[in-house]
Amino acid sequence: MSNPDADIYAARGYGSRPLGFGAKPGLVVVDFQRGFTEAGFPMGGAPMVDAAVRNTVPLIAAAKRAGLPVIACVNGYDSPRAAPHWKAAPVFDLLQGTPAVELDPRIAAAGPDVVLMKTAPSIFFASPAAAILTKERVDTVIVAGCITSGCVRASVIDAFSLGFRVMVPEDCVGDHDPVAHAQNLKDVERRYADVIDGAACLDAIERWRAANDREG
């Protein structure tokens, strides 16, 4: 009889190699916009997402103090015809210029360096995000945002596919469903990213800043 506690993936070598931070980190903040963070919108109001927003604000502040790039994005469209074939009807109301496409005020106040409007799940798809990070000589991407099982996961996979080391601070990402959140974090940790916490990211950012201050 098989052991239900055995990790069939670990037995096959998944998750066997931690990545660690590389030479220079950068931060991407995915879809912390009012339509996903505020309870007045159909897709907003998830407690886990609200907590992730609160935990991401100090990360943005630390990255900016260190001179590291911070790229935020919102999901939005010029018109419903510009949207792909989403199965989630409220997405078609995420129209440029409407409140649902505005950054969450807490993220906006933190002052990301770049704010992009994307039209697909990943912050990297058909956007200049990767080029900006490459220009800044970033080799490690910290991914914060929502939704863990959707746009965060897509952004993690694209960052991995583009050759970046990927760090996911568990307390800086959120979803509607804790089960989906946990399962997706576990799966990306097996394959594409280190799942750590915001405190570990803050420590890495501060260590990078201290090293660069010394070099300066």
What would you note in describing this structure?
The chain is α/β, with parallel strands linked by helices and 216 residues long. It has helices at 34-37, 47-66, 105-110, 129-135, 148-161, 178-191, 198-215; strands at residues 25-30, 70-75, 114-118, 140-146, 165-169, 173-174, 194-196. Helix 2 runs parallel beside helix 7 and helix 5 packs parallel to helix 6 (178-191). The model has no long low-confidence stretch (mean pLDDT 95). Strands 1, 2, 3, 4, 5, 6 and 7 form a seven-stranded parallel sheet that branches. The termini are far apart. It has seven helices and seven strands, in the order E-H-H-E-H-E-H-E-H-E-E-H-E-H.
Mean pLDDT metric: 95
- Count the beta strands: 7
The share of residues in helices is 25-40%
Q: What is the H-and-E element order? A: EHHEHEHEHEEHEH
The outline comes out as: globular
Continuous helix count: 7
The separation of the N and C termini measures 61 Å
Oligomer: single chain
- Major sheet attributes: 7 strands, parallel
Task: Provide a concise account of the structure shown.
This protein has helices at residues 34-37, 47-66, 105-110, 129-135, 148-161, 178-191, 198-215, and strands at 25-30, 70-75, 114-118, 140-146, 165-169, 173-174, 194-196.
What order do the helices and strands come in, and which of them pair?
Elements: E1 25-30, H1 34-37, H2 47-66, E2 70-75, H3 105-110, E3 114-118, H4 129-135, E4 140-146, H5 148-161, E5 165-169, E6 173-174, H6 178-191, E7 194-196, H7 198-215
Parallel strand pairs: 1-2, 1-4, 2-3, 4-5, 4-6, 5-7
Helix pairs in contact: 2-7, 5-6
